[in-house]
Amino acid sequence: MRSDRALHWRIPALLCVMALVLAACGGGDDDDDTSSTDETDTQGITIAAEQELTNFNQNTSADNLLWGAMIVRLVWPQMYFQTPDFKLEPGFMADGPAEVVTEDPFTVRWKINPDAVWSDGTPVSSDDLEYYWQSCNGAVDEGEPVDPEDPEATAVDCVSTDGYDQVTQFTKVDEKTAEAVFSGPIAEFDSLFSNPIPPAHIARAEGEDAWGTAFIDSPIVSAGPYTLGEYVKGESLTLERNEEFYGEPANLETITFRFIEEPGQMVDALRNGEVDLIYPQPQTDTIPQVEEIPDVASTISFGPTWEHLTFNFANTALADAAVRQAILLGTNRVELVDILMKPFSEEATVLNNRIFMNGNDGYQNNAGDVEEYDIDAANAVLDDAGWVEGSDGIREKDGERLALRIITTGGNTLREDTEELLQSQYAELGIELTIDNRPGSDAFDVIFGAEETAADWDIALFAWVGTVTPAISSAPVYGTGQGNNPGGYTNPEVDTVFAEAIAELDQTRRFELLNEADAMMWAPTELPDIPLYQKPTHLAYLDKYANIVDNTTSEGFTWNAEQWEIVE
Amino acid sequence: MFSYILRRLAMSIPTLVVASFFVFVLVAASGDPLAELRANPGISDATINAREQELNLDEPLLSQYRVWATNAVQGDLGESVQFNEPVSEVLARRLGVTFRLVFLATIIGVVVAVFIGVVAAVKQYSLFDHGSTFLAFVFFSMPVFWLAAVLKDAGIRMNDRFGQTIFYTVGERTPNLDAGFIGQLTDRAGHLLLPSLTLILISVAGWSRYQRASMRDVLHTDYVRTARAKGLSESQVLGRHALRNALVPVVTVVALDFGAILGGAIVTERVFAWKGMGTLLIESLQNQDTPMVQGWLLASAVIVIMFNFAADIFYGYLDPRIRRA
Amino acid sequence: MLDDAIDTELAEFETERARSHTRVVAARFLRHRVATVALIVLVLMALASFFAPKYYSFDPNERTGALSEGPSSTHWFGTDNLGKDTYAQVARGTTKSMQIGLLVAIVATMLGVAVGAIAGLYGGWIDALLMRITDLFLVIPLLAVLIVLANRYRGDSGNWKEIAFVIAMFAWMYQARITRSELLALREREFVKAARALGASDRRIVFRHLLPNAAGAIIVNATLVVATAILIEGTLSFLGFGVTPPDISLGSLIDEGAEAARTRWWLFYLPGLWLVTILLCVNFVGDGLHDAIDPSQDRVRE
User: Fold this and answer.
1) Which of A104, A336, B126, B323 has a beta carbon 3.0–4.6 Å from B316's, enabling a disulfide?
2) Which one-letter DSSP state was computed for residue B257?
């Protein structure tokens, strides 16, 4: 029934299939239109995105990713957005800036753009703001049962309740006007409603859990310059121009975000014409490679993400101010910057302020004399404090060796390199530094105490992200007993100055107060942490695109994407 | 032949049961799915207990397995933690991507390996034989991750030289591509080029050696000598008598190697940023997506068993003696 | 007593035979020119790596002050961005990779020989069951299962031993098969029959007669296990499931250097070529040993 011949033709047939496939591959040579960048019929841009958004409502603590915000801000509107020079400006849905109506009680009024409308025809209204406030006022403590009848009921998981939780009364004055009464003066009230606002009418129709679940796969409606197009989870997301947008229409027809994790792969993709714009974590090898690619514009900026060493005051050695002072003097921050940051940019410099970044309004050097690396002074401080060198070269006092552990997010090359440099610098001080990293976010569980092993660390290396609301966001980092103060630093005087700053409406005076608080913490007896440097961001794109400007705030570089255009 | 197929099929089922239990135990042993919840001080014990009951974690392992397996048989592999969608849907999507890569690489790999093996065996100790043997050793000794990275580097250098993109290095297609059917096909083929070449080079190295050895054994058998003595032409001898018998061991090896090819695909996907099964497994492990990992392993077990089943059938077809055994 | 004496005599006879056998094997191996060269290169690379601290001027974790320099007579394989010397790191990585390879080979061989010996000795359903399990392990998508298991130890410092054990759990199958088939073949040989006729126990037969004779094939395969283990550990490190700093393996070095392929080629290509050379040599040696011990390639298969 089966002849041997069957096998004979089968193999040639296979070869034919193979030849066809190869022919199809070879076809790429003559066909120029296949490359995404050479398309002439649609004007668009393809962006390599490091993260995939997890929820179009990225205002929850789990979904608050930089890339989520960058995508969603083109679809959902904001009352305010952050400019590259750290200012807040009214966004698409705002009709002018928010105003203080009365100072006592402190009342703020927001006016909404009369033309603003969702893509399903529903007007963008004060109800959208009210829904956002209701979700973010933290009325029920997370995880705490409220109603004995309904033990599952918890507060909505909102990424930040700062400011919203001070509102005692929220009023929808009319469809396009809202007012809120605060429990006391809040200077940085314009930071409220500066995240993309979800459509309340859709959410309210979805029911209780809508905030966290209704928008996982789609924004459903749009009130921004773009709408959602093709979205292949795990691969890519395309935004299409919103032709019915009530504002100035966008220039580019499509913006495609392609999810690529590794910086090296992004660079290859840019070089290969597979993407048009990349925003990789800066790495020693990616920057020179990008600069080699013809027709590509590449910029390095120093953003608000600043790396620092936080001390754990629970460690008895670190509770000794002399040890902290010696570590500051003995940390060669200039060498760290020279080795780790200078390969990225010659402009890299040491950071000498915990609240304002280099180049911000309000930045000043608060480090004073302690700024300079001085190993002799550092050793003298330790000698005077009674820490004497033991037989193994490590200092000790009352039988306690000066051996400290440093923890950071394992797998982050830059931080691991920093640790190695610190290890050799502290060896000169007679301090033994042991590296005790945890993979990725596990490190934060240890540092911020989500684990049994909580507080089981001595020095933590991680970053804070500076914001346009320095008073509201810095106070919890240094305030007594605050959640963002894992080292347990406490100084009532510093607490008072921060409280004053939060309520101070005059910006100049507010910045003075904040600098005063920072200067206090640079004193040799204080030193809750040591700022190291600001981390650079790297934006590179084909130079046929115009108007692309990096924005190192949490707004991201898509802050003006509607204005991007192609110039041939 | 039919009863042979039935018998083989019957043997696959207990294997699948054992494999699925193994998968379940393996994942249970590899970590606590509620570790993240337990670590969060804001979550009460009541919530954790409720979640435990929901996932049957409070029951003995065997009954946990029974629940999982019963659902799995009905096509319900649970809900993925990281994607918030059914595991089976994510798997279906990702399998398609990997399948294209693995299928193409396996077919081309087998054809090339058989060709090289046969020529090397027939022209034993020729330059071709020595050359192919040496190259086989070189590629056999090459880690997939290194070879893939080297090929990628070479591909980009070639693109630079030709001034246009022939070799794609990221993903399995250009998203949002505005092109017709031929354009889409060309685009996908261009993305396939380097990843499949990686897998082909690695697998050809091993398989061609098997083909060579088995062909040489066959060439030394009596029936081939008889065929030659009967005055059949060399091509008839090789094609009709030798090759058919010499294919048997290679088919087995390819089927056995399927797990290894899948391993190669995991690495290749990583290097070329393909969003297939390999990337999925790594992401699921990093995100502690237990149902996804279980589903992944079960799906791959089913595929491996199917492959072996197919190989058995093919084997029986090539060598009728086996059917009777 | 008498049994013992005869047994000893038999054993001595075999040892003598084994000795001359070893000489024959060695002679055959040495005729295999490529394998001989490979063995020499392999031994040299191992010694060079192991004794690097004795003759090379730099430590693997030392910051030399030469930042990102290419290969030179001072820094043979160049340096990275912190000024660490790549040759010193490759040497350290090789030592760690070989440690892992050897540990895996030892554990896997013990496991495999145990399974194979039990199967070969008892036969019947035990044999059938054990071989079925072995077959099952052979078709497992190895890498997938390994990363699932290694995930447990991801990021733990000093995790190389755990990783080696995980690899070993899936590297014993060929050892089991070889042991079993050697046992089955040897069981029919005269000296075993003689020992059995003299009333020697199963254990004694296995340990004094069968295993020493099967040792050749087992050792050959163990060299291949070393190569496989080094390869797999490298792959795990590359995927982020391997050794954790401050430990270095060749895989983790290549992973770190991958992004530098086009800017600082020495960080990627030199450790990579080094690893490929090691694996190539092990495979050639294995091939040579195989030919030397089992020169029966032209034998018609049963």
Assistant:
1) B323
2) T
Determine what percent of chain A falls in helix, strand and coil, rounding each to the nearest 5: 30, 20, 45
Helix (H) or strand (E) holding A99: strand A99-103
Q: Give per-residue burial for B3-29: e unless 16+ CB within 10 Å, then b.
A: ebeeebeeebeebeeebbebbbebbbe
To the nearest whole angstrom, how far is the Cα of C142 from the nearest Cα of chain B?
6
B187 — pLDDT class (breaks 50, 70, 90): confident
Q: How many CB pairs under 8 A join A and B?
A: 139
Q: Confidence band (pLDDT; 50, 70, 90) for A31?
A: very low
Average pLDDT, chain A: 83
Q: Which residues pair with A432 in a beta bridge?
A: A403
Of C151, C238, C261, the CB nearest to B267: C238
* Measured distance CA(A212)–CA(A158) in Å, rounded: 9
Q: Which two tokens stand for residue A31?
A: 């066909």
- Inter-chain touch C276–B142, beta carbons under 8 Å: yes
The 3-state DSSP composition of chain B as helix, strand, coil percent (nearest 5) reads: 80, 0, 20
Q: What crossing angle do the helices spanning B258-271 and B87-122 adopt, rounded to 10°?
A: 110
What tens digit of pLDDT does each residue of A155-172 get?
Answer: 677 777 778 888 889 999
For residues B98 and B265, the answer to whether their CB atoms sit within 8 Å is yes
Shortest distance between the Cα of B18 and any Cα of chain A, in A, equals: 32
pLDDT at A541: 95
Q: Which residues of C touch A286 (CB under 8 A)?
A: 259
Q: Give me the mean pLDDT over the A210-225 stretch.
A: 89
Query: Do β-strands A236-241 and A226-232 pair in parallel, antiparallel, or remain unpaired?
Result: antiparallel
Residue C247 CA to residue A80 CA, distance in Å, equals 49
What is the C-alpha to C-alpha distance for residues A437 and B286, in angstroms, rounded to an integer? 17
Is the separation of the CB atoms in A152 and A144 below 8 Å?
no
Q: What is the DSSP letter of C112?
A: H
Q: What is the dihedral of CA B202, B206, B207, B209, to 10 degrees?
A: 140
Of A197, A306, A264, give the one whose Cα is nearest residue A552: A306
Which residue among B15, B26, B137 places its CB closest to the CB of C145? B26
Closest CA of chain A from C86, distance in Å: 15
| Bridge partner residues of A545 (DSSP) | A566
Alpha helix locations (H) across A194-349?
200-206, 210-213, 263-271, 286-292, 316-319, 321-330, 333-336
Q: Are C103 and C161 in contact (CB under 8 A)?
A: yes
Give the Cα separation of C240 and C237 in Å (integer): 5
Give percent of chain B above pLDDT 90. Answer: 4
Full set of structural domains in chain A with CATH? 303-535 (3.10.105.10)
| Whether the predicted pLDDT of A117 surpasses 90 | yes
Picking from B91, B102, B141 by the largest number of C CB atoms within 10 A of its own CB, the best residue to mutate is B141
User: Across the interface, do C245 and A416 touch by the CB < 8 Å criterion?
Assistant: yes
Average pLDDT over residues B245-269: 82
pLDDT at position C105 over 80: yes
**Residue where the block lists tokens 């072995």:** C134
Whether the pLDDT of residue A561 is over 80: the answer is yes
Interface membership of A272 toward C (CB under 8 Å): no
Q: Hey, are the CB atoms on B145 and C140 less than 8 Å from each other?
A: no
Greatest CA separation for chain A: 99
Residue B36 confidence (pLDDT): 54
Q: Select the CATH number that applies to the domain covering B91-324 from these four: 1.20.1250.20, 1.10.10.1100, 2.40.50.140, 1.10.3720.10.
A: 1.10.3720.10
User: In one letter, which amino acid is A51?
Assistant: Q
Which pLDDT belongs to residue C137?
Answer: 83
